[in-house]
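Schema walkthrough. Field components (list of strings):
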Amino acid sequence: QSVLTQPPSVSGAPGQRVTISCTGSSSNIGSPYDVHWYQVLPGTAPKLLIYANKNRPSGVPDRFSGSKSGPSASLAIAGLQAEDEANYYCQSYDRSLSAWVFGGGTKLTVL
Amino acid sequence: QVQLQESGPGLVKPSQTLSLTCTVFGGYISSGDHYWSWIRQHPGKGLEWIGYIYYSGSTHYNPSLRSRVTMSVDTSKNQFSLNLSSVTAADTAVYYCVTSPRAATPTGWFDPWGQGSLVTVSS
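Field assembly_structure (string):
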């Protein structure tokens, strides 16, 4: 059972917009702790997609965007492309556990 | 551009100690700008942060693994290491070495990641 809760799967057609939620609590996202998102393509290491809630590292398309409100955060992917099919994980810090924590991951399927 | 590379045995026997080393390229552990972590991913499962080490040798481990984890750093080789003792099949996973900016701690992100090292615990 992951500390941060994500839907196991989402799907969308090419060109559509999808969102992936990440729900935490007052000891992690609800505290002043940022949320970060990672993309894991099949057979590859995780890649930082969004850091500090809404910032994109250099090279990440602006189709990817992040937001945070209270104890939850969201990753939005606009203009879906086949290459976006991957697993996505959110991550934050939990002060009760004194540990960095991840969501269970969401598998995005591009129909 | 910092790059990380894990190395170590791919097979460890139950009850033994899993040992992995991460070599850092394109940057210096001794710069003091980053924490150096290990993260693992069980087959088909999510990500689990194991712990981090700073260039000074100070560490912070995940409480769930603290009793079995030891991390060390060798700044002369620009490497840091993970030892996980008394392993069982439940420790079979891909182990990644990663870095996070010290200035952003404790809320920091992990970037970049090594390519990952699959470690199987089996007799």
